């Protein structure tokens, strides 16, 4: 973290520009895992990966476990990461950082190693929920020491697999993690979710299923139950990574907040990420959204509408939506964000963090059992620097607020490198120059 808070640029008019966002960390990290699980000795290339902390951590984890990982410059600032699966994974120490995808996707793969694998991460990572992975692995015949990070997975290298019931209401990544390596378990893996709440972020489980199937794995889906059959894992030789749509939403929010116009180049046609939901959420604020040859374009309204949205399926959008809701409140509109109780276990407790940080600019935000309520009222000069809590999306939420509230500074803009390595340079350029970045 730098000692100096970062001055968030204030927009002196509508923000206009075209933005190319980095590849999705969710797609990249699944692709890296599937390449490392390959059963045919073929080298696979994950093309267009972001140079972000989470993807670097995943590549580092797979390297430590014995995969051959070669990173080269890709097009437009991206990375191409070539991965060859090892004959057998080896004992290792794995740094998960603060990456949910690393801490939940790697332990099931570590069970295929021929020795113990120790996983640890940032201080906050030790507080993030791991129950579904730990209980799930034990139910599948894998010895795990610890209930959260630091964890040791004993290694096998031939885990039995079978059927397991877990409570995945704290994170969809419990399900995704168990499924991703499931084909390499002797009996495959069947995961049933049983919990007080449903599995959040279900489109991310759908992403896992789609990418497994593209890797030749047989997956059967039922409500709250998924089965991966044992068998070969043979992902395509080149795995292309789509732009990160949750990252894109931050740049699009600049148009929504300032009655501007922002285009995201290369908006994906498929439904690997919930792009349609991103569009609908921004439209709820009164934005106009169009998809054309040049990409997805959002035009912001003069006055923002309040929103009443269930973000259970797209919970990682919550900080962005909360920032826009605070701006709508300034226009006299109240908002309600629902279905996101589990984000108390994200990079930070995002509900508490949003109440505290939006409060520093005078927003009247109350935490509910499963979300936030934002009451109408003016925004005022910040009382102190906006805290990022090492959370990329808290940092970008502060930047969105800073577009219209002069004087917002962010204590740790480097937190954005978790998924958006160039944010601290791109954002001022977009806000100030009104040209493509
Ligand atoms: O599998 C994934 O790539 C992700 C799943 C979601 O996690 P939760 O289900 O814990 O919300 C999402 O919020 C996270 O940013 C990425
Ligand atoms: C929740 C998030 O990340 P993670 O993959 O670390 O859970 C996120 O990116 O908003």
TrEMBL record:
The keyword Transferase applies. It is an enzyme of class 2 (transferase). Keywords: Amino-acid biosynthesis, Aromatic amino acid biosynthesis, Cytoplasm, Transferase. Its EC number is 2.5.1.19. Pathway: Metabolic intermediate biosynthesis; chorismate biosynthesis; chorismate from D-erythrose 4-phosphate and phosphoenolpyruvate: step 6/7. CDD domains: EPSP_synthase (cd01556). Residues 12-425 form the Enolpyruvate transferase domain. Phosphoenolpyruvate binds at residues 25, 100, 128, 173, 350, 393, 418. The active site is at residue 316. It is found in: Cytoplasm. InterPro entries: Enolpyruvate_Tfrase_dom (IPR001986), Enolpyruvate_Tfrase_sf (IPR036968), EPSP_synthase (IPR006264), EPSP_synthase_CS (IPR023193), RNA3'P_cycl/enolpyr_Trfase_a/b (IPR013792). Signal peptide: none annotated. Pfam families: EPSP_synthase. Residues 1-22 are annotated as: Disordered. It catalyses: 3-phosphoshikimate + phosphoenolpyruvate = 5-O-(1-carboxyvinyl)-3-phosphoshikimate + phosphate. GO terms for molecular function: 3-phosphoshikimate 1-carboxyvinyltransferase activity. Monomer. NCBIfam families: aroA (TIGR01356). Catalyzes the transfer of the enolpyruvyl moiety of phosphoenolpyruvate (PEP) to the 5-hydroxyl of shikimate-3-phosphate (S3P) to produce enolpyruvyl shikimate-3-phosphate and inorganic phosphate. This is 3-phosphoshikimate 1-carboxyvinyltransferase. It comes from Actinomycetospora aeridis.
């Amino acid at each position: 973290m730098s000692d100096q808070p970062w001055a968030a640029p204030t927009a002196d008019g509508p923000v206009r520009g075209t933005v190319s966002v980095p590849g999705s960390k969710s797609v990249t990290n699944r692709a890296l895992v599937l390449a490392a699980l390959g059963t045919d000795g073929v080298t696979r290339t994950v093309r267009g990966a972001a140079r972000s902390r989470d993807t670097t951590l995943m590549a580092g984890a797979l390297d430590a476990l014995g995969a051959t990982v070669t990173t080269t410059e890709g097009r437009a600032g991206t990375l191409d990461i070539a991965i060859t699966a090892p004959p057998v994974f080896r004992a290792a120490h794995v740094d998960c950082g603060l990456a949910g995808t690393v801490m939940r996707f790697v332990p099931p793969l570590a069970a295929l190693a021929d020795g113990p694998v120790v996983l640890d991460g940032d201080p906050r990572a030790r507080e993030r929920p791991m129950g579904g992975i730990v209980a799930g692995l034990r139910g599948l015949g894998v010895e795990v020491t610890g209930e959260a990070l630091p964890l040791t997975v004993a290694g096998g290298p031939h885990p039995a697999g079978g059927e397991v019931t877990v409570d995945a209401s704290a994170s969809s990544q419990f399900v995704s993690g168990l499924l991703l390596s499931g084909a390499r378990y002797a009996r495959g893996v069947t995961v049933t979710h049983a919990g007080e709440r449903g599995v959040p972020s279900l489109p991310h489980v759908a992403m896992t299923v789609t990418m497994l199937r593209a890797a030749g794995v047989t997956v059967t889906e039922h409500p709250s139950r998924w089965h991966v059959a044992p068998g070969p894992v043979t992902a395509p030789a080149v795995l292309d990574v789509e732009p990160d749509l949750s990252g894109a939403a931050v740049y699009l929010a600049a148009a929504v907040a300032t009655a501007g116009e922002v285009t995201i180049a290369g908006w994906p046609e498929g439904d690997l990420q919930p792009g349609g939901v991103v569009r609908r959420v921004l439209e709820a604020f009164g934005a106009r959204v169009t998809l054309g040859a040049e990409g997805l374009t959002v035009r912001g309204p003069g006055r923002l509408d309040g929103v009443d949205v269930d973000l259970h399926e797209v919970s990682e959008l919550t900080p962005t939506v909360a920032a826009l809701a605070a701006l709508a409140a300034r226009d006299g509109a109240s908002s309600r964000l629902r279905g996101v109780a589990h984000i108390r276990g994200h990079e930070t407790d995002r509900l508490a963090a949003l109440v505290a940080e939006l409060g520093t600019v005078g927003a009247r935000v109350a935490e509910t059992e499963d979300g936030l309520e934002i009451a109408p009222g003016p925004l005022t000069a910040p009382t102190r620097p906006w805290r990022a809590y090492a959370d990329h999306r808290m940092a970008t939420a502060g930047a969105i607020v800073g577009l219209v509230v002069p004087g917002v500074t962010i204590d740790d803009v480097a937190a954005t490198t978790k998924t958006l390595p160039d944010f601290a340079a791109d954002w001022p350029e977009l806000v100030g120059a009104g040209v493509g970045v």
